[in-house]
């Protein structure tokens, strides 16, 4: 059975996820707009704020994932939403730049509790077939809010003042809390995992699952390669477009194309997953790499790339990225032991954040040494080779990581 609307409490979970996603993108857009246009922060300060916003995910993410496995996830969602709303209000009234940046750090902490709690709830409410449909629905929601929420933030900022949009963020967090009573009525009491043991190391369950379950290992390797390659080239994309003589508006349009491509991937995911299954993560990584390799290669040999071709490439880029990421999400839900799913999901997210932090530094160094077009060629080529190798591994029964040759289920 894959009809999600018949699952008790699923509509409330979807509404909560929607408000959470809106809040996240409103916060991201408004915080950095305020730093630039209200506080007149310099580049170093904005970079430090960006690092502080993402740092909690690296440091505290696995701990909060473990907490979601041992406590009631609905309560964790309520605390996270309340913390988001309160920090949004405090950001509005921050008296100086230093306090504002401190609140940005606290906002990063407040964001962490929602994801592992949602993973625990999804696993407890849905069967394995429904998890595929859920990945499609949740990704579509995320991409739509990624498109609409920044536009809403821009509109509120233009009509009123820059900080006014954070009031909307606080209101959306409160709406999320109102969705939770419906979830509390349908989530079984055993989801609290009161008897589960706390892992000695928060990354232990992730590493154990990757070592013993080939399907999860392959999907994890693909998504980590995907994230690392994104970190390599993405910060250099606007500079690449400028070097190619494209107008300033081209960057924003390309970002919208990636969101549109991811939305298309979400709508087609259920069909593609049913048809290609375990081949989808590595196949998506290959296509993703080609969309980075092609423009870099064409620019390196002096061929001008028309703007419509850029748009087509980045629609494909967003679609391929989304398919690989969704495949990993479904594999995590289906293969992770239910008692540690919050820990595993948060630890996997922290590993991805680590790749995103290291990638831009390495990408900038390669771009300075070889030039941006060749950096794109290198990044895309690595993704194509890694994805092709993983495809070969799926077909031949081997993979990149030495471990047990087969394990359909986690013991």
From TrEMBL:
It is a multi-pass membrane protein. The chain crosses the membrane at residues 12-37, 43-64, 85-106, 163-183, 216-233, 245-272, 284-305, 311-332, 344-366, 372-394. It comes from the Bacteria. Keywords: Cell membrane, Membrane, Transmembrane, Transmembrane helix. It is found in: Cell membrane. Pfam families: MFS_1. This is MFS transporter. It comes from Cupriavidus numazuensis.
């Amino acid at each position: 059975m894959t009809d999600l609307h018949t699952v008790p409490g699923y509509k409330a979970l979807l509404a909560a996820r929607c408000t959470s996603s809106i809040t996240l993108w409103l916060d991201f857009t408004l915080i950095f707009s305020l730093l630039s246009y209200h506080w007149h922060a310099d580049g170093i300060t904005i970079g430090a704020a960006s690092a502080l916003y993402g740092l909690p995910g690296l440091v505290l993410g696995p701990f909060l994932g473990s907490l979601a496995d041992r406590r009631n996830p609905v309560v964790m969602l309520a605390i996270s939403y309340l913390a988001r709303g309160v920090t949004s209000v405090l950001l509005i009234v921050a008296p100086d730049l230093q306090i504002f940046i401190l609140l940005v750090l606290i906002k990063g902490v407040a964001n962490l509790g929602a994801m592992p709690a949602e993973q625990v709830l999804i696993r407890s409410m849905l069967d394995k077939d429904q998890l595929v449909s859920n990945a499609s629905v949740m990704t579509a929601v995320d991409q739509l809010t990624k498109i609409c929420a920044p536009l809403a933030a821009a509109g509120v900022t233009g009509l009123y003042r820059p900080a006014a949009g954070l009031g909307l963020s606080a209101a959306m967090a409160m709406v999320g809390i109102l969705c939770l009573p419906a979830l509390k009525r349908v989530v079984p009491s055993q989801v609290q995992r009161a008897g589960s043991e706390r892992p000695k190391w928060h990354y232990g369950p992730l590493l154990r699952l990757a070592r013993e379950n080939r399907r999860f290992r392959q999907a994890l390797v693909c998504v980590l390669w995907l994230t690392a390659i994104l970190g390599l080239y993405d910060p250099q994309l606007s500079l690449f477009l400028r070097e190619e003589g494209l107008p300033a508006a081209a960057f924003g349009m390309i970002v919208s194309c990636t969101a549109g491509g991811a939305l298309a991937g979400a709508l087609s995911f259920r069909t593609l997953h049913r048809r290609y299954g375990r081949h989808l993560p590595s196949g998506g990584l290959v296509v993703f790499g080609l969309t980075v390799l092609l423009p870099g290669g064409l620019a390196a040999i002096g061929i001008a790339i028309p703007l419509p071709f850029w748009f087509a490439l980045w629609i494909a880029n967003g679609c391929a990225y989304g398919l690989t990421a969704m495949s990993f999400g479904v594999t995590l839900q289906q293969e992770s032991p239910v008692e540690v799913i919050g820990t595993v999901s948060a630890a996997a997210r922290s590993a991805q954040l680590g790749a995103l932090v290291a990638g831009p530094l390495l990408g900038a160094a390669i771009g300075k040494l070889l030039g941006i077009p060749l950096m794109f060629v290198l990044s895309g080529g690595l993704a194509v080779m890694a994805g092709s190798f993983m495809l070969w591994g799926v077909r031949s029964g081997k993979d990149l990581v030495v471990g047990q040759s087969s394990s359909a289920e986690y013991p």
